[in-house]
Specification:
alpha+beta; 5-stranded mixed sheet; 6 helices; 5 strands
Amino acid sequence: MRRVRRITLAIALALSVTMLAPATPAQAESQRVPVCHIVWERNDDGQLEPHQVCIYIELPDLRLENPCPPACGPVFDWRERINPVDEFEYFERWNDAFRTLNESRLAEDPELERKLRHEATERFLGAARILEGSEVELNGIGWFDPETGESYKSDSPRLWEIGEQLAEGQRLMSAAVEDREAVEPAMEAYDAALDGFGYE
């Protein structure tokens, strides 16, 4: 459970930085939304247990019906052939990349936007190397409240579409480890997912 505690601490530190940092004009009008993934870890008895790994991103407007605002955020369950030991590291890296990509969308300085987008791309590639070519499929969607640990089911077609776009981005970025021509289509899939979350 050491990994779970480390991730929880990292999230807490990230939140403290977010709250202390002065808001930019874009952030002042935005919503802070958790985006979560279900990952599996073996407990002390050797049994696999689900855990949620979450990040917080700033969105101009959440274009989804939230069943428990403002604390809840979308949660995605993935089907991939990856060692559970490596799954936490994969989503830690993926979350860092996705947060950086979102920051690039909020940047008002074009040079900063390009810099952040490049960093996000390289971080997505770094995460994709952990997949080692494993296919990623969307297995389920829902909502999760990181404050209470409560989960809520969802049958939202829009949320499912966002999940499919995220899955496509992961598949393409995994292919991009061997073929860099897949990088831009992967980033376009991630952009489409962010558009679905809350960008016009």
